[in-house]
Write a structure and sequence with these properties.
Elements lengths: L2 H16 L15 H7 L3 H10 L1 H4 L14 H15 L10 H16 L6 H6 L7 H15 L1
Helix pairs in contact: 3-8, 6-8
């Protein structure tokens, strides 16, 4: 066997073994979001927008796409989820102080208005998460009403 073929075979074997391992998945329950929804009272339309554009990275309930079963992609996705939850975790809303809640809602409004959220790498595979100007306005108005 030529050296190039051995290297290729070695890479294939390593990639195959890597598929046996992966990060812990972010699998929570819809119930984890109840406090947030009950307290902030988003309209049905805003709830759909939050589910499509925010919850995967900012709650304990991620709906994983097929590509999350591929290592090392799943580690990259998991890293984004962990970063998102560090910044804002809707599932932990009940643990936030009133001051922090108001601040987070103000940040939601600003991040969406400035089109920093959802992040562009998420939008590549989640086209339904891309917010129109009208949808951005809905989220802004809802978030501002809570933070005022």
């Amino acid at each position: 066997m030529k050296k190039r073929n051995k290297i290729f075979l070695g890479i294939i074997i390593i990639l195959g073994i890597m598929q046996l391992f992966g990060p812990t998945k972010n699998i929570g329950s819809e119930d984890d979001l109840a406090t947030f929804i009950n307290e902030t009272q988003p309209s049905a339309e805003v709830q759909v927008l939050l589910k499509n554009s925010c919850y995967d990275c900012h709650s304990s309930k991620t709906e994983y796409a097929w590509y999350n079963n591929i290592t090392p992609i799943n580690y990259w996705v998991n890293h984004h989820i962990e970063e998102g939850k560090e910044e804002l975790n809707f599932s932990e809303w009940g643990t936030y102080s009133i001051k922090k809640k108001k601040h987070k809602m103000k940040e939601i409004s600003e991040e969406v208005e400035e089109k920093h959220m959802p992040i562009s790498s998420y939008l590549i595979m989640h086209g339904d998460a891309d917010l129109s100007d009208a949808e951005i306005k809905l989220i802004e108005d809802w978030a501002k009403a809570y933070s005022d």
